[in-house]
Amino acid sequence: MNTKELVLQRKNKKISDHAVRRLPRYLKKLDELYVDGVERLSSNQLGRMLSITPSQIRQDLSNFGEFGQQGYGYNVRDLRRVIAAILGMDRNFTAILVGAGNIGHALIDHFDFNSVGVRLISAFDANPDIVGKSLGDIAIYSIENLKEMVSVHQPDIAILSVPMAYANPVAEILVEAGIKGIWNFTNVELDFPNATTVVENINFSDSLLVLSYYLSNI
Amino acid sequence: MNTKELVLQRKNKKISDHAVRRLPRYLKKLDELYVDGVERLSSNQLGRMLSITPSQIRQDLSNFGEFGQQGYGYNVRDLRRVIAAILGMDRNFTAILVGAGNIGHALIDHFDFNSVGVRLISAFDANPDIVGKSLGDIAIYSIENLKEMVSVHQPDIAILSVPMAYANPVAEILVEAGIKGIWNFTNVELDFPNATTVVENINFSDSLLVLSYYLSNI
DNA sequence: TAGATTGTTAATCGATTAACAATC
DNA sequence: TAGATTGTTAATCGATTAACAATC
After folding, report:
1. Is A177 helix (H, G, I), strand (E, B) or coil?
2. What local confidence, expressed as pLDDT, does residue A218 receive?
3. What's the rounded mean pLDDT across residues A212-218?
4. What DSSP state is assigned to residue A74?
5. Residue A193: its pLDDT value, please?
6. Rounded mean pLDDT of chain B?
7. Hey, which end of chain B has fewer CB within 10 Å, N or C?
8. What pLDDT is recorded for position B1?
9. What is the pLDDT of residues A112-147, one digit of tens each?
10. Contacts 24+ apart (CB under 8 A), B39-48
11. B213–A118: do the CB atoms touch at under 8 Å?
12. Which residue of B has its CA nearest to A217?
């Protein structure tokens, strides 16, 4: 299979969010197997490893192309590459951190942006005590310059980790400046009037409440 | 409506995870409205605010009981209470932080556990430099004592934020010691053999990959 | 009362699973 | 070749939406 022939979406099929969210799980398992030196893999084997039916795996992959071979299965190395490409890992997306508090710290120090193909280029904060300094090798700029910097440098993703009260106003600035994606850590649902912007939420309080629900209901 | 009569699940109906994950959104909006002094609300109004069909809201709520009134709608204050109770917010769940690195820091400093009815009682770490100190008013104990402390004090929830390599071994200790829920920040899929333990994942890398996917595919 | 809105049943839509012909 | 496993079509299952009688 030639990766260059990769079609990201076949036949204008509508691809469900469920399917998309399974792709990172496939990828991670394939990475593990690759590191372990495994060369081939059937949908059946992968399914057992992830508690997913082989049917579903084949359906999911068939949204994007034909990556297997009858009687053989999938080549681990190739399939990894394909899924990485589908997920946009080779697009060299750039990101800025907006709000350099504790979560921002944690991301800069511990999150391997590289491993998902994203490059973090700078940070912005309102606190004059930290503006002008840097976190690791990420410089912190004043939030005053956010709009201009986004307009000029056109980063793809804004990691939004400002205090809740600022979530919507800052998001609006980002959208106006032309940001394409927002990774939203604010626990606030962003309300856009005219949104072509992609928003992906990491919502701690919703998540903990769901855990609390299931704990309450065995 | 009398909150004491609340039944958490009617008719042994199976409640879908989708429905459960919408409840925190309802609650948050109801909180806002309550603070703004709004007294009543129809499923239609709430639906417009959240971009959810009124049908779905009524279906979701009907999983748990009858909380509205024909011709009137829902009482904001009552419905808030009911949903909070369904989500287990008045169960006084306790939590421990396992791995007191940056994410742990961020949670202690900024996350309002109180607002979801959870009480954080202590933290554990392997780093001898911080064991014995505290973060805010949360004491940090040695991870050596984890199993014993969990067995004795029986916290409900473990917030798992250890390095990836330790995710599964530490999770196993927690389960053996009788933990009921794990809020998993490790980016690792926990594999339990005999799991009655509830796991709720916060997976940064999966989430960022999904954002990257949608950015790649307009 | 008349209008509004619920809770629920029925209809639709979408996602998952099963089955199987094609073929490596 | 024979066995294995794909990609896809069909069947099933589950979730969402629509419709409406009940009733505040």
Report:
1. coil
2. 74
3. 93
4. E
5. 61
6. 93
7. C
8. 35
9. 999 999 999 999 999 999 999 999 999 999 999 999
10. B39/B75, B39/B76, B39/B77, B40/B72, B40/B73, B40/B74, B40/B75, B40/B76, B41/B73, B41/B74, B41/B76, B41/B79, B42/B73, B42/B74, B43/B68, B43/B73, B43/B74, B45/B73, B46/B74
11. no
12. B8
Which chain A residues are Cβ-neighbours of B20 within 8 angstroms?
210, 213-214
Establish whether the CB of A168 is closer than 7 Å to any nucleic acid atom in strand C: no
Nucleotides of D under 7 A from a protein CB: 2-9, 14-19, 22-24
Give the tens place of pLDDT for each residue, B87-122. Answer: 999 999 999 999 999 899 889 988 999 999 999 999
Sequence letter at residue A164: M
Give the whole-angstrom CA distance, residue A152 versus residue A159. Answer: 18
At B196, is the pLDDT very low, low, confident or very high (cuts 50, 70, 90)? confident
pLDDT greater than 60 at residue A210: yes
* Chain A residue numbers touching B117 (CB-CB < 8 A): 212
Nearest nucleotide to B73 (CA to C1') is C5
Q: pLDDT exceeding 90 applies to what percent of chain B?
A: 87
Contact B105 A110 (CB under 8 A): no
User: Does residue B120 sit at the A interface (CB-CB below 8 Å)?
Assistant: no
Encoded tokens for B124: 């554990």
Give the Cα separation of A24 and A30 in Å (integer).
10
Look up the protein residue whose alpha carbon has the minimum distance to the C1' of C2: B71
Q: Which helix (H) or strand (E) holds B134?
A: strand B134-135
Q: How confident is the model at residue B218 (pLDDT cuts 50, 70, 90)?
A: confident
Query: Would residue A162 be called left, alpha or beta, if left means φ above 0 and alpha means ψ between -120 and 50 degrees?
Result: beta
**Nearest protein residue, CA measured to C1' of D6:** A70
Whether nucleic acid strand C comes within 7 Å of the CB of B70, the answer is yes
Contact in structure between B152 and B177 (CB atoms under 8 Å) = no
